[in-house]
Amino acid sequence: MCGIFGYLGEQDAVSLVLEGLKKLEYRGYDSAGVALIQNGELLSHKEVGKVSVLDAKIAEKGWKSGLAIAHTRWATHGKPTQINAHPQFDTASRCAVVHNGIIENHEAVRRLLQKRGVSFQSDTDTEVISQLIGFLNKGNFLRAVQRALPLLQGAFAIAVIHQDAPEEIICAAKESPLAIGVGEGEMFVASDAQAFLKYTRQAIYLHSSELALITKKGVQAFNARLAPIEKESENLDHDAEEVTKGAYQHYMLKEIYEQPQTLQNALLSRFSEEYGSAILDGLKLSEEELFKIKRIVILACGTSLHAGLTATYLFEEKARIPVEVEISSEFRYKNPIVQENTLAIAISQSGETADTLAAMRELKEKGAKIVGICNVQGSTLAREVDSCLFLRAGPEICVAATKTYTSQLIVLTLLSLRFARMHTMSQQEGKHLIKALQALPSQVKSILSQADKIERIAKKYAHYDNFFFLGRRYMYPTALEGALKLKEIAYINANGYPAGEMKHGPIALIHENCPTVAYCGDSVTYPKILSNLMEIKARSGKVLAIAPEGSKEIQGIADDVIYVPKTLDELSPIPATIVSQLLAYYIAKERGTEIDQPRNLAKSVTVE
Ligand code: F6R
């Protein structure tokens, strides 16, 4: 995690890096800092809290410089304190480093340097980088960085400046993203190119174990042995438009309300009504390759994992292809077996989740074809996969995923339709599914029009500290996702569970102060979940049900029911999820939590 931003040019570097950092706050926001060189002197300031806190302090200083690096932190090693914030320095405070990633052997390097008389100020792994560079610097700054890199294990992206080289930024990357923006007489460095798009669309990406010397004149990249390498700049076609909250109190609410449009975008030109099939231009696999796929492995984390779990039902039932969904962080340590004709689907809205990237690389190395499902063009995932299906959801600013999740469900449904029509599904069935997909945006609108009712119900349940979220079949991953939203933004202990498993242990936790949110949108298992809810009621548990219009029986069981428009079982996660999102939002609002940037979280999880 963490966001790096650097600038070298004729403009006011300090205000520019602070502006850049604000665009990177989704990567972490527990502390921030800046370092610059003014009149040959290295100056810096760090603050605990968001970039706005740093900004206010820096404004008082009146610093002027054409070179600065800055950092917004998500703490890994060491608490979020001023000392632990980045930049970190060498003993002489002549060299400053900002870092994204983790140095896994930081203890060993620290001990080695301490034995040679270096004393450390912070608890961070990053300080070993700055101290090591300072220790190795014998008058050639670039050479010192190059010599330090092979001694560091882990994943990292760094930007380094030195008082003795006031016109240079040195960058290096190993399995962490770093983009260099090439402007006219000015250069940028950022963890995400989006942060400098306003100034330039030309970007150079550093690959693993590469470093770069940046001056106003340009970029010279080197390999690990410091041999110069040629790197082409890429022309980015992102939409650099500023995203604002508009009239909404939070980005989360705005993003929830965008879903009728984002669902439409995810569907746009991706199906043929006539043939009842999906058209996925991003899928760079031949008809023959697709036909031969015998097994699908899905890699994802968090909300994206829940989309993947939903897809198991879709692919297995509709296309009859066996699917395994793997938690990325666990998968790579399994020494996975990759049989011939295995397709891997890596799902990540950000395209930067370190665990998913590592798992995907492992599978790629073993010969699997990789399809990415991602929202961010130019992200590491999008650049490394064989084919990428974009969500087209637009930037998602709130840390909690909302619109990207429902778009992931749409793209996965289309992909399963593509496979299903090759194998088992009739044209008629395909047409039926497409019709139901087309109806979703207006169905979502009708759920959004019930927001007042959902808010009233949310207020009624907001004081409980423990919840169960239950569902079966398509509603099981939907329940997991509902529970995750409540945990993340309202800080409530919410247990997502398959309803049928309750009697095997968890039902012991049910009592009058532990309500259950019950997802009743799956028609095949509807009678079964009703019985499970009766068992909850028999133990004085309260039930808030989310059920399709026309479900009568639930009224006699649940304490409260929120009705959603009826759709096919395979699409029922979408309407139910819109309710979960609003429910979590209004409960969090009632409890006064920081909805868009919840504590301890970050939008891009770039450390393993
Ligand atoms: C939940 C949430 C996280 C992410 C997870 C994976 O609201 O946002 O659980 O889903 O960190 O992120 P991506 O999809 O970017 O790989």
Bound molecule kinds, no repeats: fructose -6-phosphate
The structural class is: alpha/beta
Compute the number of helices.
18
Q: Strand tally, please? A: 27
Using the CA coordinates, give the radius of gyration. 26 Å
**Poorly predicted ranges (pLDDT <50, ≥5 residues)?**
none
| Whole-number count of domains | 3
Assign the CATH class of the largest domain: Alpha Beta
Average pLDDT for all residues: 94
Kindly report the CATH topology of the largest domain.
Glutamine Phosphoribosylpyrophosphate, subunit 1, domain 1
Helix content: 25-40%
Shape: globular
| Adjacency order of strands in the biggest sheet | 3-2-4-1-10-9-11-15
Strand content: 15-25%
Largest sheet: 8 strands, antiparallel
Describe the model.
It is a single chain. This protein is an alpha/beta fold. It folds into three domains: about 240 residues, 4-Layer Sandwich (Glutamine Phosphoribosylpyrophosphate, subunit 1, domain 1); about 200 residues, 3-Layer(aba) Sandwich (Rossmann fold), CATH 3.40.50; about 160 residues, Rossmann fold (3-Layer(aba) Sandwich). It has 18 helices and 27 strands. The chain has an eight-stranded antiparallel sheet with strand order 3-2-4-1-10-9-11-15, with helices on one face. A seven-stranded antiparallel sheet has the order 5-6-7-8-12-13-14. A five-stranded parallel sheet has the order 19-18-20-21-22, sandwiched between helices. A hairpin with a 5-residue loop joins β13 and β14. It is globular and about 80 Å long. The model has no long low-confidence stretch (mean pLDDT about 95). The structure holds fructose -6-phosphate (F6R). Fructose -6-phosphate binds next to α9 and α16.
